[in-house]
Design a protein that fits this description.
With about 220 residues, the chain is mainly alpha-helical. It has a single domain, classed as Lysozyme (Orthogonal Bundle). It starts with a helix and ends in an 8-residue tail after the last helix. The longest helix is centred in the middle third of the chain and has 18 residues. The chain has 10 helices and no strands. Helix content is about 55%, strand content about 0%.
Length: about 220
């Protein structure tokens, strides 16, 4: 297990029985662990699959929009709810991302991109924790990149081909949210199966359960 992943696990809620059990199992196994400590079978990354032209074009259009991640609020109450979430999440994330500016930029972008894609922000925070431990420049053993561990082939299929761009905060989070939304649509809203597709382990429970467990740390009434 990498030092950053161990620190991430240690700073999670100690009362989480799922995480405690996983830590014990990981420590006992000692071998066969992939990036961030998850078994290699569960850390495969998204699989490249044929995309029908309309789907590919729709995904490309969803990625291409370049508006900045600045949320617009319908009311003062909605804005206050966002600010409460931002403040609370910033406090929780401080140990993992000590730099205030990068932490706020990250959280603002997560809020914006999850809502843009119609995703559960709490779930996406859990996914990012499992995928990269909130490391902007993380690279997995299979080449997945950035916060949401985007496989490079996506840049070729629906992006501009610049794999280095996947380390940009907004580009990475946009790709990840659009891809997860695509998988949710394919699985008719079944989050468990969509998470399996995101990880390349469709139908197996290790990865979805890890994301669900991590997401519990980021639950907030205004999320």
């Amino acid at each position: 297990m990498t030092r950053s992943c161990l620190a991430s696990a240690q700073t999670s809620r100690a009362s989480d029985p799922t995480r405690r059990a996983w830590l014990l199992a990981a420590g006992a196994a000692g071998l066969g662990l992939g990036f961030c400590g998850w078994p290699l079978a569960a850390r495969a990354g998204q699989l490249e699959e044929p995309l029908a032209d309309p789907v590919r074009l729709a995904l490309r259009a969803a990625i291409a929009s370049s508006e900045p991640p600045l949320p617009v609020f319908s009311s003062t109450a909605a804005r206050l709810a966002y600010l409460r979430w931002l403040t609370d999440m910033s406090d929780r994330l401080r140990r993992r991302k000590p730099d205030f500016r990068s932490r706020i930029e990250f959280l603002q972008t997560v809020w914006y991109e999850t809502r843009r894609a119609g995703l559960d922000t709490t779930l996406v925070m859990g996914l990012i924790q499992v995928e990269s431990a909130f490391r902007k420049f993380a690279i997995s053993r299979v080449g997945a990149r950035g916060y949401m561990q985007i496989m490079p082939f996506w840049s070729r299929l629906i992006g501009d081909g610049d794999v280095g761009g996947l380390f940009n905060t907004q580009i990475n989070l946009r790709f990840g949210c659009v891809i997860l939304r695509h998988y949710l649509d394919r699985e008719r809203g079944n989050t468990f199966m969509a998470l399996g597709r995101y990880n390349g382990s469709r139908g197996r429970d290790v990865y979805p359960n890890a994301v669900y467990a991590a997401a519990r740390h980021w639950v907030h009434p205004d999320a």
